[in-house]
Design goal:
Layout (H helix, E strand, L loop, with lengths): L6 H26 L7 H19 L2 H25 L4 H24 L4 E3 L20 H5 L4 H19 L1 H11 L1 H6 L4 H25 L4 E3 L6 H11 L4 H21 L6 H35 L1
Antiparallel strand pairs: 1-2
């Protein structure tokens, strides 16, 4: 009980959820235009490596974030061109992006920094931590909300921004229509391809920030495969949230909480293997819930149609 009341648990939850949330929101945009992006894992990994490279080359954390976004957007553009114009299978292309990112970052780590496994520069400046005035002085709540990197607050703000965009703007309605019925949308003059490319580029930008949070948010370092399945968890969060930003945000918070809880349980004499698999066990359970929910919805629709 004391563990659940510890504010550091929820503070670490916000840090853990940020990469998942940003990538899941990008995945939600892709899903809304009819592109199921399973390459989130690879895009996060590219963003993490690009953030370190950008910081190494420029020495400026904000230029490093921009560099990470641009690099991942380039890969997203390649993803979009292959799937939209060349009509390749979106699942196969996403899996290929994941393998490409793993091999390319491993090779580039040795080619650029001449190291294997991981790279860390203690002189490199990471993302700053923002203390929110007045809020930081509130007992218990201030320890949770204040003192995070800007990307943590950006991720939370993007939930509301994307919700308003999707469900309260004309452009958002057109984006959803482009994914739900492309043929009818084209007949109404909606440029479906433009919205698909825009969604993929926005997804790339968000995944670039997600990766930068990993490599620059806590420690300024990169290790091979440091995304550690977060992209796949983000994919599940997208599905569980029905590509709705509010649902995606709630699902991501669930996975972030289990990840933070697993880390805290390591100090309670529990096997590391058990605590490390906790987020993925919750992911599998969430998939079962998602499957049953879809089956119930299909059964309800079939009953209504039979009447």
């Amino acid at each position: 009980m004391d563990l659940l009341l510890d504010p550091t648990l929820y503070s670490s939850m916000l840090r853990a959820v940020t990469p998942i949330l940003l990538a899941a929101l990008g995945g939600a945009l892709c899903a809304r235009v009819g592109l199921f992006n399973v390459g989130l894992e690879g895009l996060i990994l590219i963003g993490a490596f690009s953030g370190i490279v950008g910081n190494h080359l420029t020495g400026n954390i904000w230029l490093a974030l921009l560099f990470a976004m641009l690099c991942v957007m380039l890969f997203s553009l390649m993803f979009a061109y292959i799937t939209i114009h060349l009509k390749a299978n979106v699942i196969v292309v996403g899996v290929a992006i994941n393998f490409l990112a793993m091999g390319l970052t491993t090779f580039s780590l040795r080619a650029i920094f001449n190291v294997k496994g991981s790279y860390r520069d203690t002189n490199m400046v990471g993302l700053p931590r923002w203390d929110i005035p007045l809020v930081q002085d509130i007992p218990w709540l201030g320890k949770i909300v204040s003192g995070h990197s800007p990307l943590v607050y950006l991720g939370l703000a993007m939930v509301g921004v994307l919700y308003v965009y999707m469900f309260r703007t004309v452009s958002g309605f057109r984006l959803r229509a482009a994914g739900e019925n492309p043929i009818a949308s084209r007949s109404l003059g909606i440029r479906v391809t433009r919205y698909q490319y825009g969604a993929m580029l926005a997804c790339g930008a968000l995944c670039g920030l997600a990766g930068a949070q990993l490599s620059l948010g806590q420690l300024t370092m990169f290790s091979e495969g440091m995304s550690s399945g977060r992209g796949f968890i983000a994919l599940v969060a997208t599905m569980l949230g029905q590509a709705n930003p509010l649902g995606v945000g709630a699902s991501s918070l669930l996975f972030g909480f289990t990840s933070s809880l697993g880390s805290r349980l390591q100090g309670m004499a529990l096997p590391t293997q058990f605590t490390s698999m906790l987020p993925f066990v919750v992911t599998l359970l969430a998939m079962f819930f998602f499957r049953n929910k879809n089956q119930m919805a299909d059964a309800r629709r079939s009953n209504e149609s039979s009447r």
